[in-house]
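Issue 218. Parser rejects a valid record. Input:
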Amino acid sequence: MRRFLSMMLVFVMLFSVNSYAVGGHKHKHFDMKGVDSWALEEVTKAAQENLVPYELMNDFKKSTTRKEFCILAIKMIEAISGNGIEEFVKNAGKVMPPKGTFKDCDLLEVRAAKALGITDGTSATTFSPDNLLTREQAAKFLTTTAMACGEDVKLSTPNYLDAKQISDWAKPYIGYLESIGVMKGVGGNRFDPKGKYQRQQSFMTIYRLKKHTPKIHKKHNHIDDGKAKHLQLLNKYVPANPLNTDYKITLKGTVEDYTGIRNIKYVVFFKNMGNKILRRVDYYSMDKLEIRSFYYSNEDKTYIYSKTNSFSEPEVLEGEHLMIPRLNGDYFRSIINNVNFQDFEMKVDKLNDKNTLYIAYRPPVSGLSQYWFDLDYRVPVKFVSIPDGGIVKAELERVEREVSESEFDRNTVNR
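Output the parser choked on:
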């Protein structure tokens, strides 16, 4: 039993979303309330392509800060290149500024933006991360981001009625962005250079710039074609928004180790509570062993109860730590970019006449793990995992769409 518990502990650790989370981002519900109708389509696409951190998906008419733009620019570069930003900077032949370069902001994305020439500090030791960008300042940031991707930028002079209000240094950048359709005027042939660069506008322009820049030029950065292919597949089949569909999924299988073969059962409950609150509960049972794990997104904590202590005091872990991994884009993207993982494979595979996303990889602390993810529910409908000294495998038994809220109440776990 102790050996099995050790195996299961490894199993839980492998699929902890926080273990290799990219920037701490998780799949959550994007509420588009407040986005103007003219911006809605492109803001939605930017979110679906994982170009926008969840934390910025609010106050859409608020002005974008210098720090926020750096975050958006770096996410776009990572999405296009298939590399983590530190690897990208290194492959581009640049040097990442050390921590402490700016006294008022030590964010990795800001230091990376400096290394790539996207922006610089407001002094030798300050960045002024919360300063708001004007539209003409944003034009320069967007252009230097394109240049960091190796784009052959052709600067030109814009022809707006308010061109006299545009700073001389900004005119070539504004002309370039207008020529490629990334940043346009505000109507009436005006650009409004000193106007606000709203969040919704920053999401739109980053999305447009990504469309215009489908790849990093190899003369500027090395591209791992296999890695890029996996990332493109992941972006295609794993939207950023969470499910609105509640479900209860039951999987049954076996655990086999040196003690013999035993039956196991997993029951996964999922419910979107609205207002950006998601709940997920996993029940696991084998012989007399029972584990129940509760994850609440509004708390970002997992409560793990075990029958061995009569389901009394739970172990509380920060972040999402559940037995069955969900199809989380950030989690698997981090695995693709992690050089310690081996034998990674991702493809669309038919299972029972239905498309699934097959993902297989070999973590550094265990054997091969294989998953067939249902694209509707984003959980495995079949998996095979090979921890040290055994094999765990299970397949879908049934799916139910009605889920009672009482299933997510931790107060009933020991009743």
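Fixed in the parser; the record now loads. Residues 67 and 107 are 8 Å apart (CA to CA).
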